[in-house]
TrEMBL record:
Protein name per the record: TerB family tellurite resistance protein
Pfam families: TerB
Entries under Gene3D superfamilies matching the protein: TerB-like (1.10.3680.10)
Domain Co-chaperone DjlA N-terminal: 20-122
Organism: Falsiroseomonas algicola
Amino acid sequence: MFGMFKSQAPAFDLTPRNCLVASLLYCMASDGEMDQEEIGHLLSVMGPGATRQALDNALRYCRATPAEQFAAAAAPKLRHDQKLCILLNMIDSAMSDGQAEPEEQRLVMGFVQAFGISEAELEPHFRSLTAKNDRAVLDR
């Protein structure tokens, strides 16, 4: 009987852009805090046509759906290049505050596995993102 009150995942179309938004939300929430840099990154990838309703729908979906379940559902709907785009945006978001926290690292690696992308393929991109986000070099 109490199952009637259980939160259900709202209807959420797993389009490539929605998958990107949801992936970033999972990444942002994984370490328990949402930094300004992460929020700015999320808003920029949502694009100019983004609405508050679209963000609210994505938030409700992410709250009701475990990240692992989402990644497994999204993977077959995405092309390889779309998966790579999402993973690189997740890595960039995780590193935007200077370092990827252990929780963010675990989440990203779970998505890497679910999406079937090899670490060897990601390594050169990761090096580029590391260099991009190492703004301390500007003060040395």
